[in-house]
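quick one
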Amino acid sequence: MARHALFFILLLSLAQARAQTPAASATPATPATPVSSPAPVAGAPKQPGAIAAKVTFSRVNVDGPYIAMTFDDGPSGGSTNNTNRLLDLAAKKHIKLTFFLIGENAAHYPQLVQRELAEGHQIGNHSYTHPNLAKMSDEAVRSEIQKTQDAIIGASGYKPVIMRPPYGSMTARQRIWVAHDFGFKIIIWDVDPLDWKRPGSSVVAQRIISATRPGSIILSHDIHSGTVDAMPQVFDALLAKGYKFVTVSELLAMDKGPAAKPKKPAAAASPATAAAIPSSTP
Ligand code: NI
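structure w/ nickel (II) ion:
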């Protein structure tokens, strides 16, 4: 077997040598390093995207059935009383949620901000006026975020440590400096029921229930009555499946790091594969 393999490799080398142009034959006959997997260079500058990825979370790799349900754009008061209705439902089931607040709304409904915190939920920063931050100057982004921090602190004394950009939209460079300057983790999501399109409560519920996995960060909006109406069904179904609702920071604290990638089959150029070829060749 080993001799066959050696012979085969010799044949291959001869064939390659023959195929090469005179100029190319000056280079070693061993295969060139694949372009797709360059060797890591110590001290090489990392890409902004790689650094931004370390401060950005769309889900968390956890060891148990833990999930974080998040509600954006509130607090929502007035006649719909959406945020209070949601807080009542969560209290009834002893469920912890996370609210990404719009600064304007926090300033308008300080009692709702206080209630969210008093009942053990987490609050994060979702900008002051809900713009697309990726299209704004650093100065304007800083102002949107700082004004929201100030509004939440003014309403409750609490200083948020997580933020979610409106539309999930922020450049890698922005995420790096915002995370650094404000001490934030940037939170996106992995489950999106598109509830803002108001597809109806049962559709919102079904989408969340079917897409949620351990470690999921679920996006919803407590400014929509239909979303709040969907929550009794969502809470009951996810609790029945054994899920445990925690805040975003509690979920992040359970992070085991990046999930291990499934093992790839042996590369075609590996010795084992090369040795196997002659035996199956007439
Ligand atoms: Ni939003």
